[in-house]
Amino acid sequence: MTIVEALKWASEQLQTNLKETNKSPMLDAELLLSFVLKTTKTNLFAHINEPLSSEQSDQFTQLIIRRLTHEPIAYLLGTKAFYGREFEVNSSVLIPRPATELMIEQAISLCKDSPPETTFFLDVGTGSGAIAITLATETAISVIATDISKEAIEVAKRNALAHHVDQKIDFRQGDLLEPILLILEKLKKHKTDCPDQVIMDEIILCANLPYLSETQWEKTQLNVREHEPRLALEAGSEGLDYYEKLFQQIKKHRSLFPNHLTTLIEIDPSQVTRAIDLIYESFPSSYPEIYQDLEGHNRLIVTHL
Length: 305
Fold this sequence. Notes:
CATH architecture of the largest domain: 3-Layer(aba) Sandwich
Oligomer: single chain
Strand content: 15-25%
Number of strands: 9
């Protein structure tokens, strides 16, 4: 089988069997064959009539078979691009979405005048570590990142090592803020004992937590519902269970945080009103600001607490 024959066969299989959900069968075929041959798409077409080895043909066939089960391309390739960098992904973590880059841009904007030695990012629900690692790479500020999934933390640590920021990020396994409360308690005690020494003066908390409602989850595309972790996507009847819990945790332990505390949360556009209500329930005097993604959808809420 030559390269052109392999592409034709694969695109026909994908077109026929995934026509409801796959809008780019040839692109999928090109990406997967380039991956098998360890080459670029440009080089692929420069050698379009060259034959595949038996091993290459078998590997490509297996990837197409997996794709026919709606498995996402990112999982088949084992990587996904985010903010100009490649991140390892597997079925233990959510695949990073372009819309989340808005959170990165706003977080960087917020810290432009903040001294890096006394400012920290918190990335709650880090998953692949894409947010934490991007912030650690793009700024001089250190990051504390949490996730309830041990497997996700392992993926995030490998990504941090690959991007040479493993020394700037403290990964902690646990439920939302619980893994870092002890850190905050120690810093609070240190501030009491040494009032003239400032260790943590500002926290910028980023959270891209699960926000699909149960109904939305049941209606998601098969490549999402059958392959991406439900734990990283679905959050109760309104899709806001985790954000409600997060703000309750912050309220309960607000005295442990520095005075300068800002939260950035990603939401579904339909949740804006209810999400803001949740914030007001815990912090009545706060002022949430709404930011839109590139498609003009309300996607990010930034709140100074």
